[in-house]
Amino acid sequence: MTVSPSPAYRMSTRHYDGDTTDRELTAGEADAFVSAALLDGAEVLPDPGRSGILTVKRSVSGPACAAGSVLVTATMAATLVPVHAPARLTARQYQDLCIIRDQRGGTAVWDRGRVCAGVHAIPAGAASRLLARGWLTVDDVPGGPAPVCVSLAGLIAMTHREHCVTTLSGSGEYVDHRGFDRLGGWVTRAWCSCGQWSTHIVGDKAPARLAARRHRAEHLTRAFALL
């Protein structure tokens, strides 16, 4: 079988010598690039906002010239911008990706356009849209069903859906009766759709939004371990 995946990321790279190049990466190419960067000790930073952008940084140090003793440091930085924003992941697509990600006792496979995962089968139309968004990777295996995995772009889109933060500001009594006596004054409350995180912060929304971004960044970083 032959599967032709669409580009998942547009990558702009500033190389060690200062030159800049641009290219498109499929989901599989992006996964391989990020995995290799992590193994090589590079820094991979997910944007904790809603963009889904990844930044990969790697630095090397050495003499400025062959006979020199002064060390200089050069940095390579690559910015990966998703072709399809994480926010475009629908509830049904999220459920389909969960089936593939959480498959136990076997590997999900691409079979005649469908994705078969245990007792579940994702129809060809839905599967092709997930592939076109760059949220799946398919290993091209001649003559048989091809293993399917959720790509890093897909995992990031899922994480954004799992961790939608809501903020509300007002008097402490309005936001939370129990927190009014303890905090008093103007309070901002933030809570996440995961149900495992919330905070009350005295003041406006800015500190609460910063705390929310840190919460989301923590879970986005965990997605790298699933590659």
Brief digest:
By secondary structure, the protein is α+β, with helices and mostly antiparallel strands.
Characterise the protein shown here.
It contains seven helices and 13 strands. It has 227 residues and is an alpha+beta fold. The strands form three sheets. The protein has a five-stranded antiparallel β-sheet. Strands 8-7-6-10-9 form a five-stranded antiparallel β-sheet. A three-stranded antiparallel β-sheet has the order 11-12-13, sandwiched between helices. The protein is flat. The model is unreliable at 177-181 (pLDDT under 50).
The whole-angstrom Rg is 22 Å
The sequence of SSEs as H and E is EEHEEEHEEEHEEHEHHEEH
Range of strand content: 25-35%
The termini sit apart by 24 Å
Strand order of the largest sheet: 2-1-5-4-3
- What level of helicity do the residues show? 25-40%
Number of strands: 13
Q: Looking at the structure, what is the overall shape?
A: flat
Number of helices in the DSSP assignment:
7
The mean pLDDT is 87
Uncertain runs: 177-181
**What structural category characterises the helix and strand content?**
alpha+beta
**Strand count, sense and closure of the main sheet?**
5 strands, antiparallel
Write the layout of secondary structure elements.
Layout: E1 7-14, E2 20-26, H1 27-39, E3 43-46, E4 54-63, E5 71-82, H2 91-101, E6 109-111, E7 114-117, E8 120-122, H3 124-132, E9 136-138, E10 146-150, H4 152-162, E11 165-171, H5 172-175, H6 177-183, E12 186-192, E13 198-202, H7 205-222
Antiparallel strand pairs: 1-2, 1-5, 3-4, 4-5, 6-7, 6-10, 7-8, 9-10, 11-12, 12-13
